[in-house]
Write a structure and sequence with these properties.
Layout (H helix, E strand, L loop, with lengths): L2 E2 H9 L10 H6 L2 E4 L1 E6 L2 E7 L4 E4 L14 H4 L23 H23 L6 E6 L5 H11 L17 H8 L21 H12 L9 H12 L7 H17 L10 H22 L8 E7 L5 E7 L6 H8 L4 E5 L4 E3 L2 E3 L8 H24 L7 E3 L7 E3 L2 H13 L6 E5 L9 E7 L4 H23 L4 E2 L1 H19 L5
Antiparallel strand pairs: 1-16, 2-5, 3-4, 3-13, 4-15, 6-8, 6-9, 7-8, 7-12, 10-11, 14-15
Helix pairs in contact: 1-14, 4-12, 5-6, 8-9, 14-15
């Protein structure tokens, strides 16, 4: 059995968006393997599981290759509750209260999603420095205006402007049905008002432009800030300045209207895909020294059933209003990871002094996204909907089941006097499950993880080179064995991290 050069090359180039962390070496080998121990490595995180009973068998076939990564923690989903004390042995049925088969499926799928998301964050904590939330705006100006008018109670008139058209509001709302752009009137464009409604257009802009958002900021003040930044260092006459503010205000208000149905998951995912393309173009044009946009996104439903996205990513400094223009489908909120703390399931965008703040923030963000995954998965009811995804170029977690490398990891932990931070025992509750004990280590650096990644890259690269020399389009078992036997010891010495 062989493993295609094309897939091996994808591994080397890190172009796959799948989150699969089965050992690449064992996937290439493609034999029938058994194991009693498995290690998962992601950044400074190391997990070592020891399975009870007979060795666990993996039977590979070509048809299994695409899905084998999803099975990384499948065995755990049939397990009982994790027991913190290793000496305790208690069988607890996780699905005792889950009477519906579909809920049990969601629960198992969520466990796999959670493990993958946590390990992706751990593997890329060195580059994930920004946290974005992209909201979807109103369907049209009818919905936006209606929401704005109903948002304030009758006693708020002194604090918030009263629309000049309040006496005939129903007629105005009817005219705004389907209107998505307020920058000008055009009778040939169904997204805009007709020319006879020019005065109404100006009144709507003036009314909406002076309403404060949840941060006590008005769209007009945002437009003024954009113009000031745009013409920094230049002296603008008041007339020209005000004209530029009007233009930016119209653009900003239009960017708060969603061009697609904000309740349709498929359509809004396409909007997100367009946004990532725009960000990469912006980086190429304005930040050529920056890395390509790398991210992990999670989809969530708001209380009003609209969709929004949480994105953990790498970005240089970009003004919020610039991101707002690139998104153009609702609001954009951005903050540095270290300036975020999470309280009562909500992201609070403010700085909080704390020891080991960065690590705490990543842990909090992981837990926050996990909760959103669980919430959204039950909402979607697993109708083959993708509720999270990653970009190309992210480092992937590693799963190791070959005995030789597991011994290297164990020796490294012992030589550096690492002790397990957590010990867990999991007891199987189904005939398909496997009981196991688990030790979790948090290392001082990610040197061990990076070293194992580099060893794999070197070995796979040599396998590809040898296969091409033999005019083969796949890596065969004999090529695998030849490379591993001839080079593994050499590479182990070259890339084994020094002790602390």
């Amino acid at each position: 059995m062989g493993y295609s050069i094309k897939k091996a090359q994808e591994y080397l180039n890190n172009t796959s968006r799948s989150i699969k962390n089965i050992d690449i070496l064992d996937r290439i080998y493609g034999g029938t393997l058994s194991y009693k121990r498995k290690s998962t490595m992601a950044g400074t995180y190391v997990s070592i599981k020891t399975y009870k009973g007979d060795p666990y068998f993996i039977n590979f076939s070509k048809s299994d290759f695409e899905d084998i990564g999803d099975n990384d923690d499948n065995n755990d989903s049939d397990m009982a509750v994790v027991l913190e004390d290793e000496d305790k042995q208690e069988v607890v049925d996780n699905d005792e209260e889950e009477s519906l088969y579909n809920k049990a499926n969601i629960k198992r799928a969520n466990q796999r999603r959670i493990n993958k998301i946590k390990n992706i964050i751990r593997s890329n904590s060195d580059i994930f420095d920004k946290f974005l939330t992209l909201t979807l705006g109103n369907i049209d100006y009818r919905e936006k205006l209606n929401y704005s008018i109903n948002k304030y109670s009758p006693g708020d008139e002194n604090d918030h402007p009263v629309p000049p058209f309040h006496s005939n509001i129903e007629e105005v709302l009817e005219k705004l049905s389907g209107v998505k752009k307020i920058d000008r009137c055009d009778e040939s464009d169904s997204d805009r008002l007709n020319p006879e409604d020019e005065q109404l257009r100006k009144e709507i802009i003036d009314y909406l432009g002076n309403l404060e958002n949840e941060n006590n900021v008005t769209p007009k003040s945002i437009a003024q800030q954009i113009v000031e930044n745009k013409y920094e260092g230049e002296s603008l006459e008041n007339f020209r300045f005000n004209e530029q503010v009007k233009l930016e205000l119209q653009r900003h208000l239009d960017s708060l209207i969603c061009s697609k149905d904000p309740y349709d998951t498929q359509k809004v995912k396409k909007l997100l895909a367009n946004f990532t393309v725009k960000i990469n173009r912006l980086l190429e044009e304005c930040h050529p020294d920056s890395d390509k946009f790398k991210y992990l996104w999670v989809l969530e439903f708001q209380e009003n059933e609209k969709i929004h996205f949480h994105i953990l990513c790498n970005l240089p400094y970009i003004d919020q209003w610039e991101l707002q223009k690139k998104w153009g489908e609702g609001m954009v909120y951005i903050k540095k990871v270290e300036d975020i703390h999470i309280k009562d399931n909500d992201v609070i965008m403010e700085q909080e002094e704390n020891e080991n703040k960065l690590n705490n923030h990543y842990q909090n963000i992981m837990n926050y996204l996990v909760k959103k995954i669980k919430k959204t998965s039950y909402k979607l009811n697993l109708n083959n909907e993708q509720i999270y995804s990653i970009s190309e170029g992210l480092k992937k977690p590693i799963s190791i089941i070959n005995a030789a490398e597991l011994n290297i990891i164990n020796n490294y932990l012992k030589e550096n006097n690492y002790k397990a931070s957590e010990k867990k025992t999991v007891v199987a509750t189904s005939e398909h499950g496997r009981s196991f004990s688990e030790e979790i280590y948090y290392l001082d650096t990610d040197d061990l993880y990076k070293a194992r990644l580099e060893v794999r890259r070197k070995l796979v690269s040599k396998m590809i080179e040898l296969a091409k020399k033999r005019n083969l389009d796949e890596i065969t078992d004999d090529i695998f064995e030849e490379v591993v036997i001839n080079h593994s010891e050499e590479l182990k010495k070259e890339y084994f991290p020094s002790t602390r």
